[in-house]
């Protein structure tokens, strides 16, 4: 599944179905503090593990791990505010989509960045729902396309007295010859059939032979 930026923006704007955890990283010692919610986001109960940078990175999705490590290193160096959307694999093997935001805190005397603090926001449900909506839309579009192609196949079968596989082959050949998507060829054939007339079969034949 690909992370959709628009879906993330909607999730953060609505604030619905979100679990939010806090974190703090002491850069001098490498010790992390997690809120109870952050433990649970990672599939643990508070106290089950000692949070470390190695543990944090180990739970990142393999495809996102290097990028998150780079973001943390840059934040450690500059202390500038940062944000990232990435996937983690929790202790139970489940995949979650998280938004992480944070910034550095500096020592008042030395000006050095001493801590990173921020939040993890679980947007898994919103991302999943968005992906399901897109899948339903794609399925509906595919079904509509399939219906158009089946209709065109019926027209070609009638025009040439051929079987369904041969009718489809003729549509596909016309699509390839004209470098036009199959669905567009099918729509043209279906439109000609809908127009009717005594010369409909001749028009369909001319359409399929056109280059």
From TrEMBL:
The terms under GO molecular function for this entry are: protein histidine kinase activity; RNA binding
Coiled coil regions in record: none
Which parts of the sequence belong to the PAS domain? 23-79
EC no.?
2.7.13.3
The UniProt entry, under PANTHER family, shows: PAC DOMAIN-CONTAINING PROTEIN, PHYTOCHROME-LIKE PROTEIN CPH1
In what residue span(s) does the ANTAR domain sit?
129-190
| Reaction equations catalysed | ATP + protein L-histidine = ADP + protein N-phospho-L-histidine
Q: Which CDD domains match?
A: PAS
Query: Signal peptide location in the record?
Result: none
Q: Does the keyword Transport apply?
A: no
Question: Would the keyword Transcription regulation turn up in this protein's UniProt record?
Answer: no
Please tell me the species this chain comes from: Cellulosimicrobium protaetiae
The protein's name is histidine kinase
Cited InterPro entries: ANTAR, CheY-like_superfamily, PAS, PAS-like_dom_sf, PAS_fold_3, Sensor_kinase/Photoreceptor, WH-like_DNA-bd_sf
The alphabetized UniProt keywords are:
Kinase, Phosphoprotein, Transferase
Query: Which Pfam families is this protein grouped with?
Result: ANTAR, PAS_3
């Amino acid at each position: 599944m690909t992370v959709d930026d628009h879906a993330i923006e909607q999730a953060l704007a609505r604030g619905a179905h979100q679990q939010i955890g806090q974190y703090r990283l002491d850069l001098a010692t490498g010790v992390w503090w997690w809120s109870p919610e952050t433990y649970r986001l990672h599939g643990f109960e508070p106290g089950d593990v000692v949070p470390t940078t190695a543990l944090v990175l180990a739970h990142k999705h393999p495809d996102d791990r290097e990028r998150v490590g780079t973001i943390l290193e840059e934040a450690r160096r500059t202390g500038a505010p940062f944000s990232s959307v990435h996937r983690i694999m929790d202790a139970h093997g489940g995949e979650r989509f998280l938004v992480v935001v944070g910034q550095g805190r500096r020592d008042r005397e030395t000006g050095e960045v001493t801590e990173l603090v921020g939040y993890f926001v679980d947007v898994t449900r919103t991302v999943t729902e968005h992906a399901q909506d897109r899948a339903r839309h794609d399925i509906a579009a595919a079904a509509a396309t399939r219906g158009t192609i089946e209709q065109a196949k019926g027209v070609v079968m009638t025009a040439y007295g051929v079987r369904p596989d041969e009718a489809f082959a003729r549509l596909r050949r016309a699509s390839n010859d004209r470098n036009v998507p199959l669905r567009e060829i099918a729509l043209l054939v279906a439109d000609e059939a809908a127009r009717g007339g005594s010369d409909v079969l001749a028009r369909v034949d001319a359409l399929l032979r056109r280059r």
